[in-house]
Amino acid sequence: MTEKLFWSNPYQREFTATLIEQFPVLNGHAVILNQTCFYATSGGQPNDLGTLNSIPVTDVRYEGDRLIHLVSSPLREDSVVGLLDWKRRYDHMQQHTGQHILSAAFFKLFEAQTSSFHLGQDYCSIELDRTNLRDTHIQEAEDTANDVLLAATQVTTFFVDPDRAKDYNLRKQSDLAESLRIIRIGEFDLSPCSGTHVKNAAEIGTILVTGFERLSQTTKITFLCGDRVRAHYHRDLQILRTLSKTLTTSVDLLPSSVAKLQAQVKELRKEVSQLKEEGLEAEASEIANRARNWNDNHLVVAVWNRPYQEIRFLAQKLTEYPGTVGALASSQEKRVIFFKDRDLSLDLRTIFQEFLSRTSGKGGGPAHFMEAGGFQCEELESLLIDLFLRGPSA
Length: 394
Hints:
Structural class: alpha+beta
Number of domains: 3
Number of strands: 21
CATH superfamily of the largest domain: Threonyl-trna Synthetase, Chain A, domain 2
CATH architecture of the largest domain: 2-Layer Sandwich
CATH topology of the largest domain: Threonyl-tRNA Synthetase, Chain A, domain 2
Strand content: 25-35%
Largest sheet: 6 strands, antiparallel, barrel
Distance between the termini: 91 Å
Strand order of the largest sheet: 2-3-7-6-5-8
Oligomer: single chain
Radius of gyration: 35 Å
Helix content: 25-40%
CATH class of the largest domain: Alpha Beta
């Protein structure tokens, strides 16, 4: 079994080891060593990266009780020098230790137990078995967690036999049958964990809750720790500076400036909508004037490559013109509408049903305004004209 050096010293960045076994696998070669500093994905914490004899390690995982290093090509020597990607490792140490402290804060304050933990590339998250947490609860837990950091609380680890676990006031129990590794964060938290952690909570710097979401049975808390908080701050600060420069206002006045812009945009949208409606009304009038004579009525048939909502609006307006009947379609969205003046005694439904039958379309609606879609037709305008010329008269 591979000795896990990251348990005894998570700060160790380089190590030597002996090659026990290696074999080809999908996308590379699997390597098993007698000892390693590389953490394998488990408990919500991703694996370490780095090199073995200068060959990149692309993944580290468990297969049963074996710790597997995945490399791009086989090792040539039995003597192995491993080197960690320290920036990644230390980031994971900060995030994971911060998660312990934040989870403990929620448990101590609100008896909210953490049911899952995810350490992502950009953000971390935990899910709590409570759905009634409010903004004030989130802030109180964040403040409590950061007090642990400000106190420079020591973080230590030790192993106990599973049958002795009940002797410790653990925040959560474990079902492992083997020796348990316990993480102690001063007098604040005591819980089993196999991950890597900092030795002093002050190294985390800051724990920042960035959001929370109520799910069906849990509450998801998104947060950042350590160097990620600083990166997040600088990113957001740059965004604020850019907005401030773009809007020619100070950062403090950005909220009121944005609110003013939103009001202006709302008013402009209203004006544009009114102008668009006026334009469509004028277009409907022109269409009605160009309508062909059909059984002493005014027939309008057209197919356009334009949004269906515009076409539908035109059809609604055309129903207001006496004696007007027809069909308008959007080739862009493959939708068609059959319409008529409400006072016409024409049985438009017969024509509509014939259209559905010949095109395998689906649709319906009131007798003067019927819509269809999902049809199959190559020469749509010709078909529509043919339906009316062959259809019933008023």
